[in-house]
Every structure is written in C-alpha cells, then in structure tokens.
Design brief:
single chain; mainly beta
C-alpha cells in the first residue's frame, strides 16, 4: 500500500510540476500510411531550427508542446517520402501526417528510418527495430521468411543451434526473453520443433528488440524484449497478398469494414509436408498414417470511434500436429502443441498531452504427448494460461519531458508436467495435481528528460510482485517419496509472495552532433521459468512459476557504449560493453528423468554471469545497404550441486559471433542479398573414458561443457525478381530465389558415439560421429499482391 501511495504521489508531482507552462501550445495527431491508413510506429518529427523532436508511439500517436510561433515540421519514416508542413501555433493543433510510400512517387527522395542521428541522440541502448518488409529481403531456409532468425543476425544475439529460432541474448536463456505479439506474451515461438517461428511476416508491421537495457514499461524477464506488432488492415481499399513456397503457402486479406472508420486483416499460413510425404508412404507400409503439419492464423479488427477513441481486437491461433504410426509394433504417438492469444485494446486521448492504452489479454500455450502400444498408454501434458489486464499512459509534458506510467495484473495457471498412464486396468496417476496458480502485478513510472543539448536521461522505477496462490496441496514425504502429511491452501490463499523495486537508468551525453556516449543500469525480476533438458527450445520444455520452493530469477545489467555516425547518417556505428549477473538460475539435477513426481523436487539452483562487447556497423542508405555485427562474450554458470560446485561455461556461451548482411539493388527489377555468419562452437559435455562392466559399455563424462564443437559458419544468398509494374494487371507478383548454406558446410548439430565390434575378441571400436542437418538447400517462392 505504501508503494502505491509513493507511486501515485510521484505521478501527481511530475504532472503538476511540468504542466504549468505559459504561452505554449500543443501539436498532436497521428502518422499514417497515405494509401493503407496504417499507423506508423516510431515515425520521426523534427522541428526546423531546433535541436528537438518526437517520435510517434506504438499506435502512431504523437504530441509536442512548443512556445507560440510559426514552425516547419518534417515527418519521416523508412521507405516513405518525407512530409514538411508549416504550422502556426497560436492554439492547440491536431494534424494527421499522411506519408506516401516511396514506390508511389516518381521523384527520388531520401528517407530515414527515424529522426536523424536518433541512435546518437536518444538514451536507449541495445535497441533494434526492423520492418517486416526489410526482413523479407533476406535469404531464408526453405523460402520461409522468419523474423526471429533475422534478429539472430544482430550483435549480442545468438541462435539455439542449426536452423533454430530460439534467442539467446547476452548470455541469457530462451525463457529470459519477453516476446509479445500485440501485447500478448508468446511462450513458445517455434514451429517444426523450433526450426521456424510462429510469426507470419505478411501479418507483421514492426519488430523491436531491446537487449537487456529495457525501459520501466517492460518487465518480467531479465534478458531482452521482442515486441511484435501486427498490421491493422487497409482502411481505404481491399487488398490480398500471399506466397507459394516449397513447404508452405500463405494468404492475407485486408480491407475496410467501413471506409476511413474500420478495417480488418486475416492472414493464414499452412505447411503441406504431410501432403508431400503421403504419396511416398503406401498403405501397406508399417508407417502409413504418420505425418506432420503446422498452421497459423492471425486476425485483427480495428474501429475508429472518434479522434479520441480507437478499439483494436486481434488474435493469433497456431498449432503443430505430429502423428507417428508403426503398425508392426502396434505403436502410435500423437504430439500436438500450439499457442492462442486474444488481445482487446482501447486507445483514448484524454487531451493533447495525455494518451492512454488499456489492454485485456488472454493467452495460452499447450503441449501434449500421447503414446499407445498394445494395452499400454502414456500421456504427458503441460502448458500455461494467462488472463492479463494492463494500462499504459504517455504524458507529453514538454519537448524535454516524456513521461510514461501504468500498471498490469496477470492471473497465471500453470500445468508444468502431468504424466499419466494405463496398462490393462492399472492406472498410473501423479501423486500431486501439479497445477499451480499465481498472481503477478506491476506498477511503473519513467521520465525521458532532456536536461540540456548534451545530457539526456531516461529514469524509471518499476515495482513488481508475484504470489503463488491456492488451491494447492503441499505434501510432506519421507526419503522414499511416501506421503506422511499434507497442508492444503484454499482458492486464492497465498503460499509464497515475492517482489521488489526494479530501478532503470539510462544516460546519454552528446560529444557533438554525430557522437555520443551512453551508460545504463537495469535491475529485473523474473517470476516464471523454462526448465530444459536440452540445448534447444523444444515443446517438451516446462514452464514453471516461482513457488515456495522456486525463487524468482534476479539480474543486474551494467552497460556502456560509444555511438557515432558518418557521412550524414549513411553509416551508423556503435560499440557497447556489458556485464550481467543473474541469481537463482534453474537446472535439473544430474541424471533427471521425467516421472510422476512434481518436477520442482528435481531442480537445483545457482548463479550466472555474462560479459562482453558488441560492435555494430550499419549502412542505411544507397543501393548497397546492410550491416556487420560482431560479439565477443563469455557466459558462466555455477551451481553448488552441479560440476562439483565449480563454474562452467553455459550452453549459451559463444566466444566469437559474426554476422555480415548485405542487400544490393541491381536495378528496378532485381535485388540481391547475402548473409554470412560465423560462430565459435557450442560448449558441450562428452565422454572421456569408456569401461566394460559385465559386458556392458559404460561411459564416464567430462566436466559440464568442458569441450567445444567445431565452429559454425554458413553463407546464404537470395535474389528477388520483380517484373515491371503494370497498372492494368490485377495480380502483381515477384519471385524469390534463395540458397541456404551455399558452400554446403556440414555444421555440427550434435555428436554421438558409435560402437562396433565386440569387447570379447578385441574388435570393439568406439567412434565419435557428428550429426549435421542442412546441406545446401535451394528454394523458390512466388509472392503476389492483388
């Protein structure tokens, strides 16, 4: 209660202190695409003759307060023609910037993705924004555009393995990334066991990655934020687009429900791996009936009630379905898993300076594994369901102060692991339901304050809390797991509560117009955890909450960097250093295997730390664009119950990581792209000695992650051909030719040991063998738009 009073007092004090300004007026409104009516996130508004400006927020709204007078305002956005308007501020003015796409203009224009020198001028570190159109130009596996793999090309971000979409940011695990789709948290981003992500690029408008130095508005994770925003739908005319590829096809339809008032978008994608494989499995085969496919469905509707009120309803539904049949052994298995989200958002403009967004979210992730063999059946299920309510306020107090504040509440339902089975009439059931419930809350306030032309800070304070609640029963057991006693907690009764303050501070000092130095310190709590027995993100990984046994993860990250631009912003460069410490990291005990018991009893806890440097060079204009990202880093873990208590390299550790991305516009019909990646080999644990005990080959393993696999490197190439535009044609298409792994590098996926011969006649041989997944893979995709 005391924290809430302090929080409210801070907000009132800030508003009262800053609001009383004389002879000042406000210019506000929205920035939109002139053709589709889509709002633009992060469009830059600059005032001629003044070293100040503002960016549109996540919903395209902007507000700037200035002394009375005449001003020339320039609005710009990547891929669009800049617009300059003269505004006489003798009263509050509402103005909508309608920017035409670059393709719709005949004259050559220079466009910027944000305010000039924004990477130098703002306080944010470790932030990267990518449009879906930019992602579509990069070469991809099997022709499937994937925003998560595009993020892996940034410094400080590494992948989970060959072709995998998991993100490991600055030494953190995949669960330490807050991944949101239209404000709904996505708990598993992978299709096909992680080789493709769930994000359909045709439905996506913008992707923002923040690597650890997150503002106070974000929380609940300790490594990064990936904020994905869906398109709103063309409010002016109907439009269809899609693509046909080697393993999947997609289709998106959008248009007005009521012109200039309401619009919709529906986007669907499905693989046809099951259809392609079926002809090769005859009905006489033991494996007839086996197959795999996945699908996605994105939907969004928005309605403009007035200049002050807008309503958005969006949803995502996706599922993977894997069926395996072996009639010879009377064995069958079904493995479905998937995500579903629904988001209802209300935007309200209270006045020219105060913008609010209120959101209600439902999301769930479910995994199930069912197997049957003759008279024996087994079922494993896990998942997480959330109900979430949040509200966020943007208060544009003055050109030197932008204040954000808000709060959220989430009701969690966890099913970490329920394993059951049956043989004949004997039923195996868990000795505890394992289902857990929790409340999560947060309040925050932050101020982006431009103290002078040289000094700017973003100071924020977040309070978060988490409570495991009933119904739940705690069992006391003996050393053999037999129940001795129990304690029951009724519905809503708290078992254990955690919480604390999370300060955030980012500082920028400008040396000149092209150079600045920045520093940041952030403190984060994470109350839910993904516990994995593997090195990649698989649907079998378990989400578990903080409980009376499991403490929340806690991190402190310290970072500093130099940012400099060259040649009128054509080249953007940065060098960032970071150091991160993490408490209450979770792993399974040595030798853990799934059982009917609560998996919490098999956890061990330790600490981790990571440090390194990140170099980023980006060429943003010209026929040749692209970037170079290089990371030098170390990531450690130390658990009293693992590796004899000695520190060891985390499975996310990678000493060197290099990405080179280039796109070249050969002419108006051909665009060429190439990607080269190099990374030090993954840390791994291998057998060091082999023994023959009672005729059985037994292995003795090394210390945890004592060895390294061979280095990973790969070159990809793509060419996009766009025929000449003909206005009288109804369908406009383009061809994407892509080659994944051009020189067919056999990169290691995992290593196993093969045994041949017999120990009894001296012919026994044990050889290490490497498994590689993807050689050179060409693909072709036809994209179309109507």
């Amino acid at each position: 209660m005391r924290m809430k009073k302090i929080f409210c007092s801070l907000i009132v004090l800030l508003i009262v202190q800053i609001s009383f300004a004389q002879n000042k007026f406000t210019l506000s409104g929205y920035v939109k695409d002139s053709l589709s009516g889509e709002t633009m996130i992060g469009a830059a508004l600059a005032i001629d003759g003044k070293n100040t400006g503002v960016n549109s927020n996540q919903y395209g709204f902007y507000s700037i307060t200035l002394p009375a007078g005449n001003y020339v305002i320039t609005c710009s956005y990547v891929g669009y023609q800049s617009q300059r308007v003269q505004v006489e501020l003798t009263k509050n003015v509402i103005y909508y910037f309608l920017l035409p796409p670059k393709i719709s203009t005949s004259q050559a224009v220079i466009v910027y993705s944000r305010k000039r020198d924004a990477n130098v001028k703002n306080t944010q570190m470790g932030q990267i924004s990518i449009s879906a159109d930019r992602v579509k130009t990069l070469p991809v596996l099997f022709g499937e555009v994937d925003i998560m793999k595009s993020l892996q090309l940034m410094p400080g971000v590494r992948n989970a393995g060959e072709g995998n979409t998991g993100l490991y940011v600055r030494g953190g695990g995949p669960d330490q990334n807050l991944i949101m789709l239209d404000d709904a948290i996505v708990y598993n981003t992978g299709h096909l066991f992680g080789f493709f992500s769930i994000f359909n690029s045709d439905a996506i408008k913008n992707i923002t990655l923040i690597k650890g130095d997150m503002p106070a508005q974000y929380g609940g994770r300790i490594s990064s934020v990936v904020d994905v925003t869906m398109k709103e739908g063309n409010i002016n005319k109907f439009q269809a687009e899609g693509g046909i590829g080697l393993i999947a096809s997609r289709l998106s339809i959008q248009g007005p429900i009521k012109k200039n008032k309401a619009s919709f978008i529906v986007s669907a994608r499905r693989t046809y791996l099951d259809v392609l494989i079926k002809p090769f499995i005859p009905k006489s085969s033991n494996f007839y009936g086996s197959g795999y496919y996945f699908y996605d469905l994105n939907m969004k509707v928005n309605y403009i009630f007035s200049e002050k009120d807008r309503l958005y309803l969006s949803g995502y539904f996706g599922q993977d379905v894997f069926n395996f049949r072996n009639s010879q052994q009377s064995f069958s298995a079904n493995i479905p898993w998937g995500n579903a989200t629904a988001t209802l958002r209300w935007n309200h403009v209270f006045n020219k300076k105060l913008f609010a967004n209120t959101t209600l979210v439902y999301n769930k992730y479910n995994f199930a594994f069912g197997a049957t063999q003759q008279n024996f059946s087994l079922r494993l299920s896990s998942g997480i369901h959330d109900l979430n309510a949040k509200t966020d306020f943007d208060f544009y107090a003055s050109p030197k102060h932008k204040i954000k504040f808000g709060g959220l509440y989430t009701y969690h339902t966890f099913t970490p692991n329920i394993l059951s089975g049956q043989q004949d009439t004997t039923v195996f059931a868990p000795n505890n339901s394992n289902k857990k419930y929790a409340n999560e809350m947060a309040l925050y306030v932050q101020d982006e304050w431009e103290i002078s032309d040289k000094l700017k800070i973003n100071a924020g304070l977040r309070w978060s809390g988490f409570s495991q609640i009933g119904p739940y029963t705690i069992y006391q057991t003996d050393s053999n797991g037999n129940k001795l006693d129990s304690t029951y907690y009724g519905r809503g009764k708290s078992l254990k509560t955690y919480g604390g303050l999370e300060p955030r501070l980012m500082v920028r000092y400008a040396l000149n117009d092209e150079t600045s130095i920045k520093a940041a310190i952030t403190h984060n709590y994470q109350y839910i955890h993904l516990v994995s027995n593997a090195g990649t993100t698989l649907p079998t990984d378990l989400w578990v909450p903080s409980t009376f046994r499991v403490k929340p993860q806690i991190s402190w990250q310290y970072s500093a960097g130099v940012f400099k631009n060259f040649k009128d912003n054509m080249f953007e460069t940065s060098l960032e250093l970071y150091y991160k410490v993490m408490q209450n990291q979770i792993e399974y005990k040595d030798g853990y295997t799934p059982s009917l018991a609560d998996p919490e009893t098999q956890f061990v806890f330790g600490k981790g730390w990571s440090y390194g440097s990140e170099l980023y060079i980006n060429k943003s204009r010209g026929r040749l664009t692209g970037w170079v990202g290089y990371t030098l880093s170390w990531t450690w873990r130390k658990f009293p119950d693992l590796n004899k208590g000695e520190k060891y390299y985390a499975k996310y550790d990678r000493r060197h990581d290099l990405s080179v991305v280039a796109t070249y516009e050969l002419n108006k019909h051909w665009k060429l792209s190439a990607v080269f990646v190099y990374g030090s080999g993954n840390a791994t644990t291998l057998p060091t000695q082999f023994y023959i005990i009672n005729g059985v080959l037994t292995q003795e393993y090394s210390k945890i992650n004592q060895y390294r696999m061979p280095a990973y490197h790969r070159l990809d190439f793509s060419a996009i051909y766009t025929p000449a535009y003909k206005p009288d044609k109804k369908i406009h298409g383009s061809w994407v030719f892509s080659i994944y792994n051009v020189y067919s590098r056999l990169n290691p996926y995992f290593i196993y040991f093969n045994q041949t011969g017999s120990p009894y006649d001296g012919t026994l041989k044990v050889e290490a063998r490497q498994v590689s997944l993807f050689p050179i893979i060409p693909s072709v995709t036809w994209n179309f738009r109507m």
